[in-house]
Structures are given as structure tokens and as C-alpha cells.
Amino acid sequence: MLELLPAPPTDPLWDLTYEFGGDERPERLNLVLGVYRDQSGTTPVMAAVREAEIRLAQRSESKEYRGLSGNTAFNSSLLDLVLGPHGPAERAAAVQTVAGSGALRLLADLVFRTRPGATVWISDPAYVNHRPILEAAGLKVRTYGWRDAEGGFDTAGVLHELADAGRDDVVLLQGSCHNPTGVDPLLDDWEALAESAERGGWVPFVDLAYHGLGDGLESDLLPTRMLAARVPEMLIAVSCSKNFGLYSDRVGCAIVLGSSRQAVRHAETALQNAARTLYSMPPEHGAAVVTTILQDEGLRASWRAELDVMRGRIMANRADLTAHLATLGHPEQARSLARQKGMFSMLPLSPNQMLRLRRQYAIYGTTSGRINIAGIPAHRIPCLAQGVAAVLDTAEVPRARELA
């Protein structure tokens, strides 16, 4: 059987990560994977997470199955966090998932079951795993542009393209800190997107993975809450990987909003059935950690404070990089980077230039130009800026052989 399997494509991000692991240059810099790292280059365990784990270990609760929806206290806590204390929780349901990717897949399965002819619209560029997850669920995918010629959010262009989205269609939107571009709509743009959804009848599908790392937790959640208050139906995939630092614990939540309690209950059961066939039920530990934090006033305050520190470090890294690029003679590229937010930024480099950056300067980013701003030690930012400037200053001669 296995001899008949053709060679499948490999994951480009992990390919680069493995290549980095074999690079023996001491100055090498890994900006590929989207993980937060502190000044020492370590992905730390947040203080609130560590304290929550101590409390959980002391209680030594049972390891019995939680059920198909996972930890229901976690689900309630995430609904309160995402929708706010006065949000439309009465017409919402939540199911714990295996991280944000699991939430995306469960919700994609729900779309396929309820609207098998639907097209899901994703931004161009998009998070690298959006299209594979949606297509694996059997859905058709179509793209809409995201940035304008100056590198900002293309309000007019996005609204023009989404005017073609049908009433059975779904539009995937990243709630904050767009991956890979770092370019977010302004609140007025979000209002215009809500009007487009109301007018066209398409369903917003919000991917929340970086809330708290852009403009602050409440500000980053404001667009999602506004949409939830205005549209009759909505899907939300939530990840706790980044803002709780629970990357390997794989904690997430799939949220569905409907126009009636019965519709939401049916959707919740459909999500449970999909989970049953994929992994039965999600792991408990990370969800218990998040629940412990969100339901304890002191731990919640500690988590919020540390999240703000992480956000401040990301903002400082971006500001420092843009200042160095401007000093090195690239003010236009610096201005474009300065408008971006969150863990990622898009360097103004072609795939060939990113290859040269990797081979000549040991700086690893994705082929598209994405780098993890949250993973740069502050003392390495001048080296990064110098490498980017050097590549920009050198005339590009495309070589297909190198890009193969």
C-alpha cells in the first residue's frame, strides 16, 4: 500500500526550521516559526500559567474523560473573554478544540455540512495553513486582496472583491495582528466589513490567534465583538497558543453564533460529532490552566500584565528595526514596517532576496518575506537591519536554480 503513495509536499515552515537546525553559523537567526521569545531567545512559561499549573497539581483532580465539548468551564470562560461580559452569549455555543488549527478544521467541517456549495474567501496573502485546512474539509477557496500599493489595508479593494461573495459564502477574517502581513483594518474598515456582510449575507469566520499582542486585549477583540453584535450568524476560531504561551499544550475553542437557540444547539452537536470522528475529545491540561487563570482575579490580572509586557517588547522590536532601516537609507520600507502590528512583519523582499538573506547573512524568514518580530533578541536587530539593507542595496538577479 505505502509503495503506491506518491511523494507528498512537505511543510515549508518546518523545512526552513530543519534547515536552520543544520546551519552551523553562530550568527544564524531563526525568524520562521511564530513563537514569542524573550531577550534570551527562550519561549518562557508565563508566571500565571506556572502558578495555575502548581494549583492544578496540588488539587490532583481526576483524569476522567471530559466529553465531546471538552472542558465546559473553559468554553464558558472563552465565550466571556471573546464576546465580553455583555456579549450575545445567549445565542452562542463553544466547543474546546485541539488549538486554533483544530477550531478552524471543526468549523470548516460545519460549513461543509451546512453549506456544501459554499466558497470560503481568504485573504491574499493568508496564514499558510488556512487553505490546506479548508480544502481538506472539502470546501472551495477563493482569495481577496489585502494590502494596497503602499502596504496598508486596501479598504476599497477588499470591499469591491467581497461584493461578489454570495449568501452561501463564508469570509475568513483574522481578528487582529494579520498573519503574515501585520496589516490590520482600522475600526472604520471593520464597520464597513460588517455592513458588507449584512448587505451581501455572507458569514464572517473570524480567526483569533493573536489577541492581546497588537493594540491590547480589549482593542484587539473589539472588531470581533462588533461583528458578533451585528450579524445573525458568525464563526470564531480561538487559539490560546500565543497569548497564553501554551503552544505545545494545543488549546483552542470553536465558537458559533446563530440567530436562535435551536440553531446554535444543532451547530454545537454537529461540532461535537465532527470532533468525535477526528480526535474524540481534546486534551484537558491546557484548558484547565486557562480556566484557572481566567476565573481567578489575581491570576487574570497577572496574565494581562505579562501579556502587555510581551506586546511592549514586540512593539519595541518593530520600532527599533524601522529606525535602523531608515538610518541605513530605506525610509520608505521603514514606514511600511512601522504600520504593521503583532508578532509578524512582512519584509519588502522577493523570494529570491529572502533566499539571499538566508544564505549570505544566516537570517531565516519565510519565502514570502514574513519574519517573526516577536522572536528577535534586541541586540540582534542592527544585524537584521544591516542584512535587509544589504539585500535591498544589491541589484536582484533572479536565479531559478536557487529558488527550486
Structure description:
With 404 residues, the protein is of the alpha/beta class. The protein has 15 helices and eleven strands. It has helices at residues 12-21, 47-59, 72-83, 99-114, 130-136, 155-162, 187-200, 217-230, 261-278, 285-294, 297-327, 331-338, 351-361, 381-393, 400-403; strands at residues 29-30, 92-98, 119-124, 140-145, 170-174, 203-208, 234-239, 251-257, 344-346, 363-364, 370-372. The strands form three sheets. A seven-stranded mixed sheet has the order 2-8-7-6-5-3-4, with helices on both faces. α3 crosses α10 (285-294), α7 runs parallel beside α8 and α11 (297-327) runs antiparallel to α12 (331-338). Mean pLDDT is 93; it is low at 399-404.
Short characterization:
The chain has 404 residues and is an alpha/beta fold. Helix content is 47%, strand content 13%. It contains 15 helices and 11 strands.
Based on CA atoms alone, the radius of gyration comes out at: 21 Å
Q: State the major sheet.
A: 7 strands, mixed
How many DSSP E strands? 11
Give the rounded overall mean pLDDT: 93
